Amino acid sequence: MTTASLNQLHAALAIEGLVDLEHERDEDVVSEGFLKDLRGAFRATRDRIFAGHEDYCRRLHQAASLEVGVAVEPLRCASARVLGQDMVARGFDAITLEPVSLSYEVWLDTGKPMSLRRDFCGLVTYARNEQQLASVAFGGRAPHQLDHDKAPNLRTRLIEVA
Fold first, then answer.
1. Predicted pLDDT at 133
2. Distance (Å, rounded) from C-alpha 60 to C-alpha 10?
């Protein structure tokens, strides 16, 4: 969800008494605990198993609207948008800070210890900077989405669309 939606949701949950004091926050920093506890704040999502990230976000946003009256604006994946798709982002491109969905993450081998979360960029960032990023692409090869046999014009579309 967008930062503005998250701030509105946090405020609404605080008014309802559904935010632990340990999760008090400022506008730009979110505790990992708050995000983990967010699902349990709503009756509709508390004891539920989700089909995936898209389903989780959709149901969480619905619950926020119904239970505390916050209309959540989803954060959309920049790579999916370029390709004419609509996907919820899961993280941020380590290079451009654009939102990226799980489907369009390109893992980068930056030498971080395995205990830390991998750096990744979006498929658009990779396609536009392939010469520079090819040497740090995880596994030493281009992402499968850019395989010329499977999608011959995809690379060109990603590079040309602004």
1. 85
2. 13
